[in-house]
Amino acid sequence: MISVVIPLWNKEAYIERCLLSVLTQTFRNFEVIVVDDGSTDRSAVLVRQINDTRVRLLSQPNAGVSVARNTGIAHASYPYIAFLDADDEWETDHLELLHHLIETFPSCGLFSTCYTIQKEDGPKTLPEFPRDKLPFQGNEGIIDNYYEIASGTNAPLNMNTFAVRKELIERVGGFPAGIKSGEDLITIARLHAQCDFAYSLIPTTTVHLIYTGRNRRPVSEEEPLNACFDALLTTARHRKGVRNYVSWWHKNRMVRAIYARNPRLALKEFYHAFRIYPFQHKIYTAFILTCFSVLSGKDLYSINRFIKKKL
Prior knowledge:
Elements (H helix, E strand, L loop, with lengths): L1 E7 L6 H9 L6 E8 L5 H6 L6 E6 L4 H11 L4 E4 L5 E2 L3 H11 L5 E10 L4 E2 L14 E4 L2 H4 L12 E4 H6 L11 H12 L2 E13 L14 H12 L6 H18 L3 H14 L4 H16 L3 H11 L1
Parallel strand pairs: 1-2, 1-4, 2-3, 6-10
Antiparallel strand pairs: 4-9, 5-10, 6-7, 6-9, 8-10
Helix pairs in contact: 7-8, 8-9, 9-10, 9-11
């Protein structure tokens, strides 16, 4: 049986769609824990209007998405926990496929499907990650090299796509409180230090990219997640590609620093990424292409797509 945890903060335009996608699942053995993180709109009211005994609404003062998820974990009744953001949705067979993975790959601690990305003004697209690095044939299998696969444009899974053993998510300390963004990345990375992932290439989740004017994550001089990612070099040293993955994190901070026109921080993160994994060519190409993007005004994603087509 699976507990579904949904953190909620001011998502009145989307929460009904989200909950409908859960309550219409073909797999029926689940509970839903919605944690209202101090919403100031009608989000919580809409949840209360749903007449289904499987749905529980918990309320807390605004403390951030990590604390909301941790609250849901603490109140979960079942041994597996699945997560869903309040503005995203599942296909009707999502939990059924997760249950299949749980039964098929009992040695794993995390079980995930693939997903689609839905932009407001565009078609659904699949995530871009190196499928040739998946260590299995066919549509499903075990990932023991998540760090290698996730060091690209997109990760193969995200917060909406997986179920995890409750004891395991508790063992890694849940989600880091006080982190405004990136808390999902480090939590999944910490989980991989503990276990293999069972994975299906079938997409059963839709991630809606909703432009709010605040989508580009600001880059700060002091980033608390830097120490968390660097710690993986010790805690996950037995895992394939961990140096590549930690270097990737600092490379992304370098890119954001260039966009923020903070050359000192950009060079600092470039050096950090280089020191961890000096033979990763993406560090150098990202530095050059991002500088070109800033100077030319061209979108970095479009530049990368153009280069890939030419190659």
